[in-house]
Amino acid sequence: MAVNMTWISDKKLTWYESVCMNVLKTGQVPRHVAFIMDGNRRYAKRNHIEKTEGHARGFTKLSETLKWCRDLGVTEVTVYAFSIENFRRPQSEIDGIMNLAREKFELLLKERDKLSEHGVCIRFIGDLSLLPADIQRQTAEVMLMTRNNKAARLNIAFSYTAREEISRAVRDVAAGVSDGHLWSSDVTERLVEQCLYTRESPRPDLLVRTSGEVRLSDFLLWQTTHTCIFFTEVLWPDFSIWHLFSAVFTYQRNYDVIQAARADRSLRRLQHSTDGLLPGTARPSDSMTRPGDSAGESLDSTDSDSECAADDRVDSASQSAAAQKRVQSFLSHLDAARWGRLESLVAEGS
Amino acid sequence: MKQLLYSLLLKLLHLLFTCAELVYGAVQRLMWQFSRVPVTPPLADICANGQQLAKRPEHLGVIIVEKDICWQTLADIILWSTAYGIHYVSLYDRSGRVRAGSEQQLRPHLERRRRALFGAVPCTVSLMEGGAEPGPTANGHSGDGDGQYHVSVALLWEPDGVGDMVAAARRLCSEVASGARRADSIDRHMFGDQLRAAAAWPDPALAIKLGPVRALLGYLPWQLRLTEVLDAPPRRPLLYRDFHRLLTAYGGIQQRMGT
C-alpha cells in the first residue's frame, strides 16, 4: 500500500466532500480541535498487519486529517501521539514507535518550505526529557524552525500526560516564587494556564477520540473542561472526513450551551475571585454585566478567544499593576528559558 | 449566492435534526406514559446484581448537564450505588444547584426512597460539600458508617474543579515562599494529594452524564484522568434497569493503562 509520506497532504476533496465542507463552514467552526488518535494497534490486528505498520497508517491518517482541518478553517490542532504511560509497552513496540517518530520528525525538517508556505508552527508538548536524545534534538529543531509561522499551529503531545503538565506548571510557578520573581498572591488560574505546555493557545473547542473509548486518558484535562467531546467507534486509521464532519456538526449543535457555560464561568470567577482586592484595583462589580445583559454578549462569546480575554479581565480586576508587571516579567523569563533550552539542544547536536 | 445557499442548507440540516430530536423525545415520552413502568427490584435482587458485575467503580461520578434536576434520579443513583457496594458518589452541577438544594430537595427524596428500598435495613448516606467533613445523614445517623450499607456523597460545583487546583497551587507557593517547602518537591503525586475536592477519595472510575450536552463542564478535571464517561438515557426519573445497564457496560470496558 502506497504510504503518504508527507505532513502536508494535498489530496483533493471530491465534489460532494467540498460541498459538505462549504455547507459546514457557514456555521460555527472550531478554531482548535484536539484528537486522541486511538486504535492503531486494533486496526493492525484486524487487518493482520504488524503494529508498526498500523502506527504508520495512523500517521497517514493524521496527515489527511490535518489537511481537512486546514480546509475547514481550523487554525490549531493538538494530537495525542504518545503518552508517558505508553512507555510501559513492550520495548520492541516502543522502539518501533520511536523509529517511526524519527522518520516523521526528519520529514518535518525536510518539509520546512512547505510548512513555511502554509504558515504552520509546530510545537511538541510533553516531558521531552524522557525521549531519546536524538529525538529531543529533532523536536527542538522543528520547534525553532517553525516558531515564526503564525497561520496555524500543530501541537504534538509526545511523552505527555496532563497531570505531568499541570504539576510541572505549578512547579515552575513555585520556582518563580522561590526565586523572588513572583509573590504567592500573584498565583491565578490564568498564570498557571500560561505555564502549561499549551500556553498562548486557546482552549480546544472540540475533542475527538476514536476507537470507541470514552475517557480522556490524561489528555488536556485542564484545557478541556468546557470542550465539546466527540467519541466515535471508528479506529483512527479508518477515520474519515465524514467522521470529522459529524464531529464539527456535533460541535455546532452544542455551541450555544457550551459558550454560555464558558461565559458563565468567567463571570462567576470575576464575582468570586479569590485573588483579593488590592487598593486602587477595579472592583469586580465594575466588570459585571448590567441586569438584563446576557453573560454571553458582555463577554463576546462569539469569539473563541473570548475566554482568554475574560480571564485577563478577571486577573486585571483583582491584581495591582505591580503584580501584573511581576507576572509578565516571570512569563518572559520562563519563555526565554524554554527557548534557550531548545537552542542548547540543537547546538549540542550540531 | 452560493454562500447563502450553503448557509440555508446548514440551517435546514440543524432544523431537521432539532425536529427529529423533538419528535423522538415526544414519542418516547408518550411510550413511557402508556407503558408499564418496570418495578424497581427488591434490595436483595439489586445487591445480587451488584455482586454479579464484572467490576464496580469505587467512586461513581454523576455529572448533571441538563436544565432541570430530577432529585429522585439523584437519590435513586445514590441508593442503588449503596446497594451495589459503591462507597463514594460525587454529584456535580457546575452552578451549584445540587449543593444549594441538598437540604430542601435531595435529603427529603433520599429519605423517601431509602425507606422504600431499604426499609428497616440500616443505610448510611453522608452528604458533604466538596471535601468538607461529612454532615448529618439523610436518616439521621451520625454517618460513622457502621451499617452494612454506607456511601459518602460529595456535592460538587465548578470551583471544585480548576479552582481547587489553583487554590492548591497558591497554598504550595505560600509554603515555598515561607521556606516550608522546596519548589522541586512538587510533582504529580504530591500535587494530587493537595486537592480538597473529594479529598482522599479514589478517582472516579465511572461518570454517568445526565443530560444531552456533549461536555463535562468542569467536573473534577484532575481526578477525571481515566474516568469512563457514559451517557444516561433521557428518561426521568432514571429507571433502575438503565442504571444497571450503565454499570454493566462499565464492567465490560477494558482499560489498557497505556500498555
Distance between the termini of chain A: 36 Å
What's the overall geometry of chain B?
globular
| Strand arrangement in the largest pleated sheet of chain A | 3-4-2-1-5-6
* Gap between N and C termini of chain B: 53 Å
Mean pLDDT of chain A: 86
The fourth-level CATH homologous superfamily of the domain at 43-134 and 149-161 and 197-252 in chain B is Decaprenyl diphosphate synthase-like
CATH T-level fold name of the domain at 43-134 and 149-161 and 197-252 in chain B: Undecaprenyl pyrophosphate synthetase
Cofactor (chain A): Mg(2+)
Family (chain A): Belongs to the UPP synthase family.
Pfam families (chain A): Prenyltransf
Subunit structure (chain A): Forms an active dehydrodolichyl diphosphate synthase complex with NUS1.
Give a topology summary.
The complex is a heterodimer of chains A (350) and B (259).
Chain A: H1 15-25, E1 32-36, H2 40-46, H3 51-72, E2 76-83, H4 91-110, H5 112-118, E3 120-125, H6 133-146, E4 152-160, H7 162-178, H8 189-194, E5 206-209, E6 228-231, H9 241-271, H10 284-287, H11 295-298, H12 306-318, H13 321-349
Parallel strand pairs in A: 1-2, 1-5, 2-4, 3-4, 5-6
Helix pairs in contact in A: 1-9, 2-3, 3-4, 4-6, 6-13, 9-12
Chain B: H1 2-34, H2 43-52, E1 59-64, H3 71-84, E2 88-92, H4 97-100, H5 102-118, E3 123-129, E4 149-156, H6 162-177, H7 188-194, E5 206-210, E6 228-231, H8 240-251
Quick structural gist:
Chain A is α/β, with parallel strands linked by helices and 350 residues long. Helices cover 53% and strands 10% of the residues of chain A.
Descriptive account of the structure:
The complex is a heterodimer of chains A (350) and B (259). Chain A has helices spanning 15-25, 40-46, 51-72, 91-110, 112-118, 133-146, 162-178, 189-194, 241-271, 284-287, 295-298, 306-318, 321-349, and strands at 32-36, 76-83, 120-125, 152-160, 206-209, 228-231. Chain A is of the alpha/beta class and 350 residues long. Chain A folds into 2 domains: 20-268, Undecaprenyl pyrophosphate synthetase (3-Layer(aba) Sandwich), CATH 3.40.1180.10; 278-333. Chain A has a 6-stranded parallel beta sheet, sandwiched between helices. In chain A, helix 6 links the parallel strand 3 (120-125) and strand 4. In chain A, helix 1 (15-25) packs parallel to helix 9 (241-271) and helix 6 (133-146) packs across helix 13. The longest helix of chain A has 31 residues, at 241-271. In chain A, 47% of the residues are buried. By secondary structure, chain B is of the alpha/beta class. Chain B has a domain at 43-134 and 149-161 and 197-252: Undecaprenyl pyrophosphate synthetase (3-Layer(aba) Sandwich). Chain B has helices at 2-34, 43-52, 71-84, 97-100, 102-118, 162-177, 188-194, 240-251, and strands at residues 59-64, 88-92, 123-129, 149-156, 206-210, 228-231. A 6-stranded parallel beta sheet of chain B has the order 3-4-2-1-5-6, covered by helices on one side. In chain B, helix 3 links the parallel strand 1 (59-64) and strand 2. Chain B is globular, with a radius of gyration of 21 Å. Chain B starts with a helix and ends in an 8-residue tail after the last helix. The model of chain B is unreliable at 133-146 (pLDDT under 50). At the A-B interface, helix 1, helix 7, strand 6 and helix 9 of A face helix 1, helix 6, helix 7 and strand 6 of B.
